[in-house]
Design brief:
The structure holds two protein chains of two kinds.
Chain A (H helix, E strand, L loop, with lengths): L1 H23 L21 E4 L5 E4 L6 E3 L2 H10 L5 E4 L1 H5 L3 H7 L1 H4 L10 H6 L4 E5 L5 H6 L4 E4 L4 H15 L2 H22 L9 E5 L6 E3 L4 H8 L3 E2 L8 E3 L2 H7 L3 E4 L7 H5 L8 H4 L3 E3 L13 H12 L9 H13 L5
Parallel strand pairs in A: 3-4, 3-5, 5-6, 7-9, 7-11, 11-12
Antiparallel strand pairs in A: 1-2, 8-10
Helix pairs in contact in A: 2-8, 8-9, 9-14, 14-15
Chain B lengths: L1 H22 L7 H12 L12 H36 L11 H14 L5 H20 E2 L2 E2 L1 H25 L2 H11 L8 H20 L1 H7 L3 H6 L4 H23 L5 H13 L3 H26 L6 H20 L6
Antiparallel strand pairs in B: 1-2
Helix pairs in contact in B: 1-3, 1-13, 2-3, 3-8, 3-11, 3-12, 3-13, 4-5, 4-6, 4-7, 4-11, 5-6, 5-11, 8-11, 9-13, 12-13, 12-14, 13-14
Classes of the chains: A alpha/beta, B mainly alpha.
């Protein structure tokens, strides 16, 4: 038995000797498959699947972002990603929220950031790490053929906003901030739902959501406008119409006889236009002066986490007796500070 | 005899459609309700309607349905009469009320107001529609006269320019406004109101009355300029007046109802196929059929679906097959 153990002993001794010798002399070499220290993050590829179902792979968080989608830009600003944005959608410079967006990025105030919508040459010349764009954009194919990485966005329901924020967080290396914002929004909505649970089904307000620009441009079943009503505890009377946005007949509106009307912010029509229109005078919402218009879309747009303010405002208007303590101005201010980390007026 | 019967049927057609238009719609009004509501209105409120007739029935009938019916008839009259008159002066069967760049100009004006300008859509459409006509006429006018061919070609060019400008506005319009622009450019009788009727009716009635009294002259003009001169008619001044009246009627109609296609082209042809090319009958019968056709189409549209579909869809979808049927039966209605 002792004789049989001798070769094994010699082999182990030789290995130890060899190990000690290599350890004492010569340059240090990293072994091929070592585990990095715990305080150093693992460098791996960033993979997200966009709203087209296409996987987008980045080697590291994007440092040059062309954001050709205004709501995507809002998401980036909430994440604290500002200087990384190298190009915009022209709509950012044209919409009614410009005065507020300008307070976030001085380059937007000075109109220094290029709006590259439709300008492929300019877009390519900016060498973005990623392009954030509407998923239905006709230019996506051309962008990808030119070697650009594209993240396509399509917001059909509010859960899509959470997915977009999560993905933007990963793309920019701000996952924790994205999670914080999503949790905050869900928490606010949970609180609201808890209070709305007091409203029984038969007491739910029957309402319409008006997109404008005409008084009859309404939100149907598949509309985020209709979702606002439902989340605020109301019944969307136009929910039976399987359309995102449609023009209703006036007689149909009289048949529905909504108790309240919520309007998307609009320059062409105001609640007063309903009150003085003889065609609307028999409609309950008009008789009871319950036509409300949401504020500037910057504070409540339905394609970013600010949709929560649309829901809060609508809930407060529809059920003032439940939300007696809710101050909408304070809610707005607090939300903006939470989402952007600063006050925007 | 057949032509006489057809003419009587055409004259009576608005009266045939009207009762259906009054009782049809998303809001349910029975023939009895309409009867009581009509008497209530005609008696100045003295007629006692049944007490169970809800207040909104009055609103639906007097403030929503009636202005829409009146507007549909006025717009139908306007487009059909001006289409017939312009086909006569241009001696071109492909011409309609929008020939002079009017629809493209009005559409651009409406889109501009919807997307950017702080002015009423109707006013902007009216102004730009007439501007397009003036530009067309000026472009076609040469050496004291205006030829039908140059008038049509100038109209095509001015239309092209305004169409491009419209596309430019659409490019910069936000999606919500873009949708309204599309609705407007395909006809929008759903926005009918007494205010719309009041703003359009004087222009339309004045213009079509003028065209009605010019129907003898239209017969002469349709022979050609030389023949007109030989009969002691100044073709240039007569054409100018007819074009101005047609443009005014169409602009007023387009301003309140958007661009309703095919009607101005089709109705005069249908009437011509049924009763012949004599403008003495063609003009009033086109007015009658234009009114009843648009009223019937709009009644169908607002009764079948619970949301609004632009009237232009239905005028084309219903009108085109019927027009092709007549075309095959009558060998192009006498133009060949």
């Amino acid at each position: 038995m002792g004789v049989k153990k001798a070769p094994v002993f010699l082999l182990v001794a030789a290995m130890i000797a060899a190990f000690l010798l290599t350890g004492c002399g010569g340059p240090k070499k990293e072994p091929a498959n070592t585990v990095p220290p715990k305080n150093e993050p693992v460098k791996s590829e960033i993979k997200v699947t966009d709203f087209r179902g296409k996987e987008v792979v980045l080697k590291e968080p994007a440092r040059r972002i062309a954001c050709l989608l205004d709501s995507g830009l809002t998401g980036l600003h909430m994440l604290g990603v500002r200087d990384e944005v190298v190009a915009l959608d022209k709509w950012t410079y044209e919409n009614d929220g410009l005065q507020y967006t300008s307070q976030i990025d001085p380059r937007i105030a000075a109109k220094e950031l290029p709006a590259v919508t439709g300008n492929m040459e300019k877009l390519i010349s900016l060498k973005p790490d990623i392009v954030i764009v509407w998923a239905q954009d006709q230019g996506i194919k051309q962008m990808e053929e030119n070697g650009l990485k594209v993240y396509g966005v399509q917001i059909n329901k509010f859960d899509d906003i959470y997915k977009e924020m999560e993905d933007l967080g990963r793309i920019t290396g701000k996952e924790a901030r994205a999670r914080e914002l999503i949790d905050y929004t869900k928490g606010e909505l949970d609180k609201l739902s808890g209070q709305l649970a007091k409203v029984s089904q038969d007491r739910r307000e029957k309402a319409l959501f008006v997109w404008g620009p005409s008084k009859l441009d309404l939100a149907g079943k598949t509309s985020t406008g209709g979702d606002i009503l439902v989340w605020a505890g109301a019944v969307n009377l136009a929910g039976q119409i399987d359309k995102e946005h449609f023009v209703a007949g006036m007689e149909q509106v009289i048949n529905w006889n909504p108790q309240s009307i919520i309007m998307w912010n609009n320059k062409k029509i105001k609640p007063e236009d309903y009150y003085k229109d003889p065609q609307w005078l028999t409609v309950k919402a008009v008789k009871d002066k319950k036509v409300y218009m949401l504020p500037n879309f910057f504070f409540c747009d339905l394609w970013t986490l600010k949709f929560q303010y649309s829901i809060k405002s609508t809930a407060k208007w529809l059920y003032p007796e439940i939300f007696t303590g809710m101050d909408l101005e304070k809610e707005k201010r607090d939300m903006i500070v939470k989402l952007y980390g600063k006050e925007i007026k | 005899m057949r032509k006489k019967t057809a003419a009587i049927a055409l004259y009576m057609s608005p009266l045939a459609v009207l009762p259906f238009a009054c009782i049809s719609g998303a809001y349910s009004l029975s023939p009895g309700d309409v009867f009581h509501l009509s008497l209530y209105g005609l008696s100045g409120g003295a007629w006692q309607a049944p007490p169970d007739l809800p207040r909104e029935a009055y609103t639906v009938f007097y403030d929503i349905r009636l202005p829409r019916i009146v507007l549909a008839m006025l717009v139908g009259i306007s487009l059909a009469a001006s289409g017939a008159a312009l086909q006569a002066v241009s001696r071109n069967p492909l011409v309609d009320s929008y020939m002079l760049g009017l629809s493209a100009g009005a559409a651009f004006g409406a889109a501009l107001a919807l997307a950017a300008l702080p002015v009423p859509v109707q006013l902007s459409a009216f102004v730009f529609g007439l501007t397009a006509v003036v530009l067309t006429y000026t472009a076609a006018y040469s050496r004291g006269s205006i030829s039908p061919v140059s008038l049509v070609l100038a109209g095509v060019m001015i239309s092209a320019v305004f169409t491009v400008l419209l596309a430019l506005v659409n490019m910069f319009a936000d999606p919500l406004k873009l949708r309204s622009i599309v609705y407007w450019t395909m006809g929008c009788l759903h926005l009918a109101s007494w205010a719309g009727v009041e703003s359009a009716a004087p222009w339309i009635l004045l213009s079509v009355t003028f065209l009605y009294f010019k129907r003898w002259k239209l017969n002469i003009l349709s022979f050609g300029d030389d023949e007109a001169r030989s009969m002691g008619v100044s073709p240039e001044s007569e054409k100018r007046l007819v074009i101005a009246a047609s443009a005014l009627a169409t602009s007023a109609a387009v301003a309140v109802a958007g661009v309703i296609g095919i009607l101005g082209l089709m109705i005069p042809h249908v009437v011509r196929m049924l009763v012949g090319p004599d403008h003495v009958r063609l003009i009033p019968l086109s007015m009658a059929l234009g009114a009843s056709f648009l009223l019937a189409v709009d009644t169908f549209a607002r009764s079948t679906v619970s949301f609004e579909i632009p009237a232009g869809f239905f005028t084309t979808l219903i009108g085109a097959p019927f027009f092709i049927y007549l075309l095959r039966k009558t060998q192009a209605g006498g133009w060949q």
